[in-house]
Specification:
about 425 residues; alpha+beta; Beta-Lactamase; Helix Hairpins; 4 domains; 5-stranded antiparallel beta sheet; 5-stranded mixed beta sheet; about 55% helix; about 20% strand; binds adenosine-5'-diphosphate; kinase; cell membrane; transmembrane helix
Length: about 425
């Protein structure tokens, strides 16, 4: 095609030159005739160029190009067809965008797009009802100016979005919303917000039920164990056939009491997000007292229990909760380590925060159990649990306490070699002395 036009152009030029030379032969002015002929051709070419320029600048969409002759006509038509093709492609793209926007607008979940700085770019209708965003006033506003809940600010600033966040809706306290944030493109954020009020209410009902049942069972159980204790105190007045039965009843009663206490503690931990007594807790004396209790628990088993404090840290939080979490870890190490074993408790701090590690040379845990270990009542081996008298709630308590203290629990273990439980406290929770 291009080659055709090249040949046509050459033919036209040759014809022009031949025509000029012919007129030159008749008039005797070759040079002038050639110059005049080329000047006319140049003028015509410039005129076509100007027409093209005017059409490109002023034409309305769909207005066909001016008529052109020869190569210029071809150029006009090609540009016109290219524009039409572009328009059609743009139309198709716009239709896709419209459909995506329509379907996202119809979603019951809120979809919000934020730029790399966390400013609002686009959101659907559900975002207006769930979060109270206003179109178009809020466009370009930082999201943390509009969703002011402290936990959201902290969650957004930390940029750790693996776990979703659940908070009350900014427009209605009775609505519970769950945030899921994903990063895409140039560090832009896509935020999905779901109404999880119903799930939250069911979860709340479950928690209330467990807390109420535990609470109601506590009084009758105290009466029963109290009487059993009195009977055992006066064992000489009891028929000897009943002595063993009474002892076992008292043992199981005490076990039930521990279970109820653990359930109530868990219910209390779940009731609020963060501990109310957020005071600096000195870790060194706390660990010293836990380790001395652990030595007492270990008794005649000849275990070596050592404590290494590398940094004397203070942790912001509740002393009672931290004591409960750390003692659960240390006492578990004692319980699940055979005689002559070693248990090492270490505490240190670095740029990431403070760390507490309980290492034992005990029976260890198979890797397949590790992900579920902090679930309530999860036991590696139920017969083992009944030997140690555990409730199966210890690690669930540890997980909840750590969650409330902005900390995480890392567990690694090799069966037969021992286990390693490490609590990582974030730097904001730590005061180093
Ligand atoms: P329990 O009251 O049964 O000890 P936990 O929640 O404290 O309940 O622990 C859950 C399970 O994890 C235990 O039943 C035990 O099998 C396992 N486990 C916990 N700590 C250790 C440890 N240091 N070594 C080996 N197994 C452990």
């Amino acid at each position: 095609m291009k080659q055709d036009w090249y040949a046509t152009l050459v033919r036209h030029m040759l014809l022009l030159v031949a025509g000029c030379l012919l007129v030159g032969m008749l008039t005797g002015h070759y040079g002038w005739c050639l110059a005049a002929g080329l000047a006319v051709y140049l003028a015509w070419t410039l005129k076509q160029l100007l027409r093209l320029h005017r059409w490109l600048r002023e034409h309305q969409p769909d207005q066909p190009p001016p008529d052109g002759y020869g190569l210029w006509g071809e150029v006009f038509d090609s540009i016109y067809h290219m524009q039409r093709r572009d328009q059609r492609a743009r139309g198709r793209l716009q239709a896709v965008i419209d459909r995506v926007q329509e379907s996202t607008a119809a979603l019951r979940d809120a979809v919000i797009m934020l730029d790399a700085d966390g400013n609002l770019e686009w959101w659907n209708r559900a975002a207006e009802t769930l979060l109270g965003l206003k179109t178009p006033q809020d466009s370009g506003q930082p999201v943390t100016n509009l969703i002011r809940h402290p936990r959201f600010k902290e969650y957004f600033a930390h940029e750790q979005y693996a776990e979703p966040l659940e908070i009350p809706s900014p427009v209605n306290d009775r609505l519970r919303v769950q945030f899921l944030i994903t990063r895409y493109g140039n560090n832009e954020h896509l935020m999905l917000v779901r109404d999880v009020t119903r799930i939250h209410q069911l979860e709340q009902m479950r928690k209330d039920f467990v807390a109420n049942v535990s609470h109601e069972l506590r009084t009758p159980l105290t009466v029963i164990t109290g009487y059993l204790e009195t009977l055992l105190d006066n064992v000489e007045n009891v028929n000897p056939r009943w002595t063993r039965a009474l002892q076992q009843m008292e043992q199981q009663g005490v076990r039930m009491q521990t279970l109820l206490n653990d359930l109530l503690l868990l219910a209390k931990l779940e009731a609020t997000d963060y501990p109310s007594d957020n005071l600096p807790v000195a870790v060194t004396p706390l660990l010293q007292s836990i380790v001395s209790d652990a030595r007492a628990l270990s008794g005649p088993r000849n275990q070596t229990i050592s404590l290494d404090i590398e940094n004397d840290v203070l942790l912001k939080g509740s002393e009672a909760e931290l004591r409960s979490a750390f003692s659960n870890l240390v006492f578990n190490a004692v319980k699940y380590t055979p005689e002559q074993g070693t248990i090492r408790v270490r505490c240190w701090a670095d740029a990431q925060g403070a760390h507490l590690r309980v290492q034992d040379s005990g029976i260890g845990i198979d890797a397949k159990h590790l992900p579920r270990l902090t679930e309530r009542f999860y036991r590696v081996d139920s017969s083992r649990a009944s030997n140690t008298g555990g409730t199966g709630l210890g690690l669930a308590i540890v997980k909840h306490v750590l969650l409330r203290h902005r900390a995480t629990l890392e567990i690694s273990s090799v069966p037969g070699r021992g286990s390693l439980f490490t609590c990582h406290f974030s730097a904001v929770q730590v005061v180093i002395r």
